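Suppose a colleague, Dr. K., hands you the sequence of a protein chain of 357 amino acids and asks what its three-dimensional shape might be. Before reaching for any lab equipment, you can write down a predicted structure in C-alpha cell form. Begin with the sequence itself:
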Amino acid sequence: MRVAIDPLKERRWLKVILHVLAWTAFILYEQGVVYYTTEKLYNFRQFGSYYLINILLFYGHTWLLGRTLGKPQGRWLTALLLASIEIVIVVALKGAITYTSSQIPFSIETMKRFAVLDLARSLYFAGLATIIWAVSHLSAYRIKMVESELAQLAASRDLANLNTNLAMVENAYLQQQIHPHLLFNTLNFIYNAVYKYSREGAQAVVQLAEIMRYSLEGAGTDGQVALISEIAQVENLIELNRCRYDHPLYLDTQFHGGIEDCRIIPLVLLTLSENIFKHGHLSDPDKPAYLQVSYERHRQLSITTFNYKKHLGGHQRISRLGIDNLRKRLNYAYGDRQDLQIEDAELTYRLQLTINL
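The predicted structure, expressed as C-alpha cells, is then:
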C-alpha cells in the first residue's frame, strides 16, 4: 500500500533540513577558525546559548522586516524602532548569560567590553538577515517587474490588433459609403420624376430620404442624439405610412416634459414606432394605437406604446431593427438604468420603456 505524500509538506521539511545543515556548517566553520587561531574550545553550553540567541535573532529580524518593510507602504521608522528594541533585548540576554556562566570576575569595564562584543555580534546577524531578506525580495520584485513588462507587451499587442481591426472597419465603412450616395441619388431622381405627377408621392420620397439619412448619419461624439430629432423622424415615418394606405391611421402621439433637453441613443423611438406599424391594427377608430413620451425633471424618460394586433396572414413587413436588438442596445448603453417591460396579450401589445438618464 502506497502512502500519498503532500508535496507542500515535503518541500517544507526539505527547507527545514537545508536551514539546519546551513547553520551547522556555519557554526562548525566559526568554531574551526577559533580553534585554529587560539587552540581553544569554549564551553559548549555557553557558546551554544549564544548561537541559539543569534539564530533566533536572525529569524526574528527577518519576520520583523516582513511585517514592516514588506508591506506595500514600508514603515521605516517602525522597523528601525523595533530593530533597536530587538538588539537591546538580545545584548541584555547575552550579558546575562555571560554574567551567570563566566568565571571572569565582575566589573563594569569587563561588562562594557563584553557588551560591545555582543552588540557587534548581534548587529552582524541582524545585518546578515537584512541582506538575505533584501536579496530574496529583490528577486521577487524583479519577477514582478518581468511579469508587469510581459503584461504591458500583451496589452500593447492587443492594442495593435485593436487598431488594425479598427482600421479594417473604417476602411469597410468608407467602402460602404458608396451605397448611401447611390441610394440618395436614386431617391432624388425618383422625387424629380414623381413630382410632375404627384406631389404627395414626391413628399413621401422626401420623407423616406430624411429617415434614411438620419439612420445612416449616426449619433454624435457622445453616442447619442437629441430626442426632438428622433421625434421628427417618427413624424416622418407616420406621414410616410399614411401615404401608403388608402384609409386613415388612428395613432395618437403625445410628448410631454422637457424633451428639448433630452438626449438618447439613436433609433429608439423609430424602432418602437416601426413596431407599431408592423404589428398594429390602426384602421379602427374605436381601437386606436398610441405612442407616449414624457421626460421628467429628475431625468427619467418614459416611453409607452400600445396597439391592437392586426390579423396575421399575408405578407408581413420585416423590420431591420427589432425589439430584441433594441433590448441589447439599451442594456449596453444604460445597463441597470433602463427597464423594458412588454405585455404581449392575445389581442393587444403594450410596451413600457423607462430610462434614468
